[in-house]
Design goal:
By secondary structure, the protein is of the alpha+beta class. The chain folds into two domains: 77 residues, no CATH class; 109 residues, Chitinase A, domain 3 (Roll). The chain is built from six helices and seven strands; from the N terminus they run H-H-H-H-H-E-E-E-E-E-H-E-E. Strands 1, 2, 3, 4, 5, 6 and 7 form a seven-stranded antiparallel β-sheet that branches. Strand 3 and strand 4 form a beta hairpin. The chain is elongated, with a radius of gyration of 23 Å. The N and C termini lie far apart (46 Å).
């Protein structure tokens, strides 16, 4: 999460009521919208891994800002430290996710048919294709279903009527290596460790820093690059 997103979220929050304690159950559309704003803000600062006492301090800062009270800290001094704190908290999360991912990858690698790519991704054929294998310069049409190791879906094309079109060389390294081991008409499971996915930054709110990603990929068609006349 970028610092600018955090700042924007805080600015949005400053337009809401400061009555954090004993907030009523949202019943009107306006109240529900304010509550939704809070949920949106919580997602934008999820990478800070706030505990209850941290959250109380954040609430206090917002409340003082809304009510124009004298700040308890110098914003010019501590404002720049927000990003440093986010990076430190994200680093702790990433280490935990990497340990979980390594254990998941080790277990998956022992399953029949599992093969490691050159960079350390794991690919398992679910259904063997009969067509051509794509090359780096080719375009492919695919359906895919992306989940975290706990099964949480973060991206999927399965509800789309048409497959997604992608250029092999423009994919992530994990996909570029993995999909070249498939054949048209085939289906495979591709497991991407964090260093081949979103690394230590993640993609909040769903993909944590250091997260290992799992993709079930249907390679619908390979469109070979036509030679230049």
């Amino acid at each position: 999460m970028r610092l600018t997103v955090f700042c924007l979220a805080t600015m949005l929050c400053l337009g809401t009521t400061a009555a954090f304690a004993g907030a009523p159950e949202p019943t009107t559309d306006e109240q529900k919208t304010f509550y939704a704003m809070g949920l949106t803000i919580s997602q934008s600062i999820e990478s800070f891994s706030l505990n209850e006492s941290d959250l109380e301090l954040v609430k206090s800062g917002i409340s003082d800002g809304v009510l124009k009270k004298t700040p308890k800290v110098d914003l010019q001094t501590f404002g720049p430290k927000i990003q440093q704190l986010q990076q430190a908290r994200a680093s702790v999360i990433a280490e935990g996710e990497k340990k979980l991912g390594a254990a998941f990858l080790a277990k998956a690698s022992s399953e029949p048919g599992a093969k490691k790519t050159e960079s350390g991704a794991l690919i398992t054929t679910i259904k063997e294709g009969k067509g051509a294998s794509p090359k780096r310069a080719d375009t492919v049409k695919v359906h895919y279903h992306g989940t975290l190791i706990d099964g949480t879906v973060f991206d999927s094309t399965l509800k789309q009527s048409e497959p997604t079109t992608l250029i092999v060389s423009e994919m992530s390294k994990c996909w570029t290596e993995g999909i070249q081991q498939m054949k048209a008409g085939g289906k495979s499971r591709l497991i991407c460790p964090s260093n081949l996915a979103y690394r230590d930054k993640g993609m909040p709110p769903l993909i944590k820093p250091g997260a290992t990603l799992v993709f079930d990929i249907d390679l619908v068609e390979v469109v070979a690059k036509q030679p230049t006349p």
